[in-house]
Each structure stands twice: as structure tokens, then as C-alpha cells.
What does this fold into?
Amino acid sequence: MRQIHRLGTHLLIELAGCEAEFLNNEEQVSEALLQAAVEAKATILSSYFHKFHPQGVSGVVVIAESHLSIHTWPELEYAAIDIFTCGDRVMPFVALRYILKKFEHDRYQTVEIGRGYPKANATNKFELVASG
Amino acid sequence: MRQIHRLGTHLLIELAGCEAEFLNNEEQVSEALLQAAVEAKATILSSYFHKFHPQGVSGVVVIAESHLSIHTWPELEYAAIDIFTCGDRVMPFVALRYILKKFEHDRYQTVEIGRGYPKANATNKFELVASG
It folds into this structure.
């Protein structure tokens, strides 16, 4: 357990066995990530998506409450998605449920990390967790 | 230990006791995050920064190898920084060292998460780690 004053929730989502065509479609991927932000009741400030050639999409949605991001590997049927929200008003787990429904997948692994500032008596610390 | 084929490294950095004025300066914050990407030898695709009023800066740098992000709370002298890189060419720990040097701070905590796709025999899994 880290010694932090928690301010936010960060969900790191690994999705496998996704449909390659979906993961390679910039429009569908961006719509899904933007809608995830809407589902969470986040305030969208900006978004940017990039289509790689021959394959893959990267994108971020900056929200007033932090950000969402996605990086896809269609050739591996894999997507790495982040949902990082601060405050009590937005609902990161609603966004997570939407993502799991929207991106058809065989399996997933999700890690939740509390974000916040180390307490005054905390020591500097580097921790390797969830290495895989 | 998660059952994943590791493709990338994600560093989640909590910095406390930073200089409030620096954290509230969009230009300085954006320069620092962009330079961190350069130090890592990443290929920058796009960046976006937003200044909150009365205080705080959020920003992302999308790189060909994933992304960097920052959210600052000058009133708490706190910044949450992410460095997510894929592949063997870029050097996330060089970016981390640059960040720790550039952002004066009293203390920090960093978590490293391996990113990648769950193995074929992996079960769906939700894990709460590094909660704080």
C-alpha cells in the first residue's frame, strides 16, 4: 500500500482477442473512447487520434478530470486503454463497463491504481507491480 | 504477476512538494513534458496542454510509441505524470530521470506496470494495486 493522499483513480486495461478491423478503424476507436468519457460524465476538453500505417490507432481524450487513452495493435487483436479520473463526480468504472461492452474481446486484465500525492512522511519509492 | 505478453512499460509517477509556480506555468510544464519525450528518444506525433483557472495544467504528448501525460495541482504542490512507451528503442527510465531532475520535488512515488495482452489461458482479472 502506498502512502498517498488519494485524489484520483487510474484504470489500466488490457483487452485481448478484439476484432482487428475495429481496432484499425480510427473513426470507430475514437467514437468509442469519446463515448466512454461521456458515459463517465467527464468534461471533454480535447481529443487527438492518429492512424498508423499499415495498422494501429493511438488516441487521447483530455478531460477536465484527467484523461483517457488508447493504443491498438490490430495484428495482435490487442488494445491498451487507460481511464484516469479525479474527483468524485465522474465515474471511471462506468466508462470501464462501456469499454468492455463496446470492444468485443476474449479476455482482459485491469489494474486499478490510486493516484495522489505522497504523504509528508513517505519515502521516495519505486515499485514494480503487475509486471506480466 | 499478471499473465501477459509484455509489449510496453508504463511508469506512473507521483511528485510532491513541487514548486507551485512551476506547476501552474503551462509553458514550463509543456516544455518539460515534451523534452522528456525527446530525452526518451520518442517520436512526437502531437501534444496538447490546457491551463485551468485559477490553477493547474493538464497535458498529453502522443508519441509513436504510446504517450506521456501530466496533470498538476499547484495548490497541493503535486503532479501526476505518466510515461507509457512501447518497443525496445525508446527509454522511459531516461525520461523518468529527466522528470525527477526538472521538477523540483520533496518526494515521489513511482509504479511500473508492464503493458501487454493477456495470454491465451489467462482469466479475466481485476486487480487493485498500489491503492494508497
